[in-house]
Amino acid sequence: MTVLRLAAVTGTALLFGYFVAACSHSQPSVSIASLKPGKDRHPAPNFSLKDGDGKTVSLTDYRGKVVLLDFWATWCGPCKIEIPWFIDFQRKNQDKGLVVLGVSMDDEGWEVVKPFAKEMKVNYRLVIGNDQTAQLYGGVDALPTTFLIDRDGRIAAVHVGLADRKAIENGIEQLLETPATNASAGSVLPVVARAE
After folding, report:
1. Helix 110-120 and helix 77-93, axial crossing angle in degrees, nearest 10
2. Fewer CB within 10 Å, N side or C side of the chain?
């Protein structure tokens, strides 16, 4: 994601308060704070990518769980702000059915991700994404981009750029309180992106 890196270095500023920040070239940052109604949710595209131990991780591995899917990079300032939140969410809610999954978009891969994850004490699973994975999710033109996926594998909310912690937390809590429905179980789209 060289374009994202160049854009972040040359033009993206970290804003606080009411503003949302993202590592992007010129895309406005958007945070959709409320969850989409069930009828408006679309299946989250599946992927198979390798984690730091070389094990294949697929989104379908987490059917029946609430998934916080975060596209991020080690060089992205807003990502570094959100990651401690996600560590906290994972710690507090994993027994309730939450899975946090980080998709690193670092060109250097594990060479930079492993030391960063160790330093940050990341307690959730990380994989290395690619352009194909990003395209499955609409291009992911800004980092961080975070998707909340319900127990039925459908995208319930999208946060582009530095989101409001409380908005994400509230979304997680609502999704954890909602059981999976039989009608849409297994609605995750088939595997398209694969690890190299």
Report:
1. 60
2. C
